Amino acid sequence: MSEQSEVTCPFCGSTETELFSLFGQQLLTVQYYCRSCRTPFERVKDDTVLDEYVARKEEEQ
Ligand SMILES: [Zn+2]
Asked: Which Pfam families match (predicted)?
């Protein structure tokens, strides 16, 4: 298991979040989805996000 950074939901504080889309409404944001309160939210895209996305893709194969 690769260690992934935890993204905290800004609404309920849960870390039960998942990367939903690499493309948010703005160029430098990505969309996350909170499994706890079922709310999508955006986060500024950074290297951590991209690493997490790549790791997820590798797991799917
Ligand atoms: Zn939440």
From this structure: Zn_ribbon_PaaD
